Amino acid sequence: FEGENVTFHPNITGLQINSYYWTFMQNNQTEKIINVIIGETKKIHRTRFEGRLDTDVKNGSITIFNLTLYQVSVPNITKSTAPPTNGVCSVTCSVENGPEVNLTWFRGNISISSSSNQNVSTLTLLQHIRGEDSSTYSCRAQNPVSVQRKTLDSQRLTCHNSGKRSSLLEESCSLSKSERHAAQFLCSDQHRS
């Protein structure tokens, strides 16, 4: 979203506070924005928000004008077209990259791997899943303003070396030979019966 006006409130309750110090953090670097003294004055520091910042000296909130917010897209989960090795499948989670995008694989509610790289247009993260694993896996794409998650049902992801394709692949293989050569096989909620 471009040109958005966003107001931030101190979010401190039950305390009598008369001064707020606002900062902006990006890539582990903190930048001073403004010091608001309730009912009195405000001191604006020279920042990227200069000329686009307003404060409410009654409650300590700040508003930043003309702010660009990048929402993260829903990640895609694909299964490798290579046959499983020793009952292990390879699946990849990918998402269109943007400012401060982080991609994380979860087994249940436990984070098992994570990736962030601002130098690529598509962020990807590989995960190996054993055929007998009945856990639910999910991939989360996140940035400071949004979170998207895609779930993979590993029980439908057969990873044995019998020469048969998994049911997920059978469902997604109704393509011509030329399309099949260029296609990646999608393991997503749309294949659930």
UniProtKB/TrEMBL annotation:
- UniProt cross-references to PROSITE patterns, sorted A to Z: IG_LIKE
Limits of the Ig-like domain: 75-158
Q: What span is annotated as the signal peptide, if there is one?
A: none
- Protein name (database record): Ig-like domain-containing protein
